[in-house]
Amino acid sequence: MSAPIRHIGIVQRVDDSTVYVIVERQSACAACHARKICGADSGESIIAVKTAHTSEFKAGDRVEVALRRRSMGIASILWGYVMPLLVLLLSLFAAKLAGAADGPAACVTLAAVTAYYAMLYALRSYMSRKIQFTIIKQE
User: How far is Cα 138 from Cα 18, in angstroms, rounded to an integer?
Assistant: First the structure.
């Protein structure tokens, strides 16, 4: 079985139950052709890690952040990239099949994708329970 996805980062700040970590770009990301798709090409990113042990962390600490299971990374890709693409294609196909002109079909497609992302936003607390990170302080 493959190891979980891990990133090294620096603690930006700590709240009551959340540690915010700025993730450093790894050298493997620089050589990857898909880095623009996953967001590794956009510079640094901030990951919010819920933990009961926030007192162990302070701003500036070097930490390792990992998904609890590798399947969570796959689920993230499916929900964030694959499903919206399917919604876009299926809604465009349905609109064109219904006889809509290009303009209205494009509007229907954009509305469908917007509705999909609104649904994801509404389900963000559910998703945060399903896709969880662990955090380990580096010495």
Answer: 18
Q: Which residues pair with 64 in a beta bridge?
A: 8, 136
Number of domains in the chain: 1
Q: How far is C-alpha 16 from the chain's CA centre?
A: 23
Q: Encode pLDDT of 22-67 as tens digits.
A: 887 665 555 565 555 555 555 678 888 888 888 888 888 898 888 7
As given in the structure block, the two tokens for residue 71 are: 């399947």
State the DSSP H helix or E strand holding residue 113, giving kind and residue range, or none if neither: helix 102-122
**Nearest 10 degrees: Cα torsion 108, 37, 22, 65:** 110
Helix 83-97 / helix 102-122 crossing angle, nearest 10 deg: 150
Read off the pTM. 0.62
Residue 1: inside a domain, yes or no?
no
DSSP H or E stretch at residue 9: strand 6-14
- Rounded to whole angstroms, how far apart are CA atoms 34 and 104? 33
Instruction: State the residue for tokens 């967001």.
Output: 39
Domain of 118 in residue numbering reads as: 6-137
